Amino acid sequence: MSYTLQILGSNAAIAAHHRHQTSQVLTMMQVPFLIDCGEGTQARLKKFKVKSQRIDHIFISHLHGDHFYGLMGLISSMHLYGRKKELNIYGPPGLKEIIAIQLKYSQSSLNYKINLTEWTPGESELLYENVNLTVHSFPLDHRIDCSGFLFREKPKKRRIKKGLLEKDISPLKIIALKDGKDVLDDDGNVLLANDKYTMPPARSCSYAFCSDTKYTESILPYIKEVDLLYHEATFMEDMHDRAEATHHTTTKQAGEIAKKANVNKLLIGHFSTRYKELEPMLAETKSVFDKAELAIEGEVFSVE
Fold first, then answer.
1. Which residues contact 263 (CB under 8 A, 6 or more apart)?
2. Residues paired with 59 in a beta bridge
3. What mean pLDDT do residues 168-186 have?
4. What does the DSSP 8-state code read for residue 54?
5. What backbone torsions phi and psi does residue 107 show, to the nearest 5 degrees?
6. Sign of the C-alpha dihedral, residues 209, 1, 131, 203?
7. Is pLDDT larger for residue 32 or for residue 197?
8. Lesser CB count within 10 Å: N end or C end of the chain?
9. Which pLDDT tens digit goes with each residue over 98-151?
10. CA-CA distance, 119 to 116, in Å (whole number)?
11. 206 to each of 154, 228, 229, 234, 264, how far by Cα in Å?
């Protein structure tokens, strides 16, 4: 299993119908990433038994309250629970000031250090990288500066065919084979042919998070052919004009984006409080893109 995505909240604006504001946890290669932190996120983490102290990276899409009002509470709770390790936050310009002001006027001094990276509006940037994956921002089209996030595993090495190699083969030769090279003897002759002893690499997985945005095809190059796309679908199609005026997306528009990007699966979320029942929203999305699901709180979606 390459990654899992657990939905903590998927409602727009305010909590309603037992749904809460946007937040989710993506776990890739055993590293958990918190994406957005709407009000009540830490309560949802507890409910779904996600250990907040394991979270070292938080990504904030924009500064509308339903996407970050839970952040200061989570930061404070991490302190109260005795956190010592550093916390890395990636968010829009202004977030550093917001955190600093709240800590200042509450006369709070944290036990741990916050490293805050403010992404650049209107640009795509590499925000995070480790040996296995990268995280890039990319611009969305909302009323204020807003960013999507693309999580992508790095290309993997070739796989050794089991049972063909001698047990005492050196680690350096195995590394060479995994790197796609033939193993040569001292005279330059092929000792181990790569195509005989290895298989193609396992597929690298990807996830794209598209927070609040109006319909825009400018995001297609960033999300093309991702395994899983989360895209807001605040309104149904009969509210098209309302979606346009508020820089949001309709169910059908989210389906169109997924179809044009040729993604493997679509999750829709950020539901308006006007919709108590969500099945009609899913049906409308599926009329355009069949491989769609609802981002229901507590649900875990896996990509292998």
1. 208, 223, 224, 225, 226, 227, 228, 229, 291
2. 35, 90
3. 76
4. G
5. 50, 50
6. negative
7. 32
8. N
9. 999 999 999 999 999 999 999 999 999 999 999 999 999 999 999 999 999 999
10. 10
11. 9, 7, 9, 24, 10
